[in-house]
Amino acid sequence: MGFRLRFKKGTINLTIALLSSSALIVCLFSGVLLSFHYFYHHPLISVLQIETFVPFGSYLRKLHYFSAQVALIFLALHLIDALLKRLYLLKRPFPWFFLIFSLPLLLFLTFTGYLLRGDEVGELAGSIAENLLQSTPVVGSFLNNLFFATTQTGLIKVYHWHLIGSFFLAGGLLIWHIKARALFRWENLFYFLWLLLPVLIVNFPLNPFQGLKARGPWFFVGAQQMLKIFDPFLVFFFLLIPLPLLQGYVYFPKRACLLSTILSIYVMIYVLFSFSFFISPF
Amino acid sequence: MGRIYLGEEYILVKEKEVFLVFSRRCPHLGCKLNYDPERELIVCPCHQSKFTLQGKFISGPAKKDLRSLSATLKESGLQIEI
Question: Which of A8, A83, A147, A176 has the fewest CB atoms within 10 Å around its CB?
Fold first, then answer.
């Protein structure tokens, strides 16, 4: 175990970790409050009622959206921080898998949240997800029936997976990863409260129509651009690449440099595709 | 729009006295198509495939023409099979 002798334990960046976990909790609570007024049989009407009739409904919806984005961004940064400080050396393969799985799970939850809007934009994103899975050989149809099938069943599956996934993510992280006693302290109140302010000022992109050029969720734009060029099932497999690479850090710690290089190239390719959306002519 | 009507699941185009009806789903990944009145084209908002008002593929990743739907003009109105 030579690598363990050379390993110096780094300290995790607590600010990043606290920002991610506090945003996740704010997102969870705002989601619980919104769920009392959301009915998946009439998603668009529910959203309009939340926006117009429910006290602080519009604010809560924006808060739910914003806290989800903050949780996602800072969870990704937290993972990068853990990789840079080689903290995977302290984890066994199974717990490490669950930790890295929290990122694709949060991506899935943010994506399903996007679909639950029930508007034109959400419907377009749902169509892409459904057809993307259906064009994937062997497991595609099964996965679509399990998670989406919006054409046949509307948003019922999406809604329930959104709730189940949120429960597992928050429950799993709060029980096994986040130290609740360290998080819920008076001195950490700022990490929760700052989330409330931008929602008052910033107009978040929650428009129901996008006309002739629709944009999916920001983290999906790269895949959206790839789908213009590549076969859908190739794009689907491309999106899965990071998971085995991240798991590889535990099994091949001596190859960490190689894994980091591949991951960096992967991210660069994805970012380039994402930017191409904004510069491509209509 | 005049001679074009976008239904929930279909696109209806009136060409002189003939009605052309197409599925509103893009043949690429099933996004709901929209009409671009400036260019008089049918456009996929997701991946920018473009089609003529006759349903012919012009450009983009779809690579296929729009799926035609059967329509019959009856006394009570136009009957479209989806």
Answer: A8
Partner residue facing B46 (CB), from A130, A214, A229: A214
Q: How many CA atoms lie within 13 A of A106 on its CB side?
A: 31
What band does B1 get if pLDDT is binned at 50, 70 and 90? very low
The domain covering A12-210 belongs, at the CATH homologous superfamily level, to Cytochrome Bc1 Complex; Chain C (1.20.810.10)
Chain B hits for A130, Cβ within 8 Å? 30
Cα A251 to Cα A256: distance, rounded to the nearest angstrom: 10
B75 min Cα distance to partner chain A (Å): 32
B48: chain A residues, CB-CB within 8 Å: 213, 228, 280, 282
pTM score of the predicted model: 0.88
Parallel, antiparallel or unpaired: strands B71-74 and B77-80: antiparallel
- Contact indicator for B48, A216 with CB cutoff of 8 Å: no
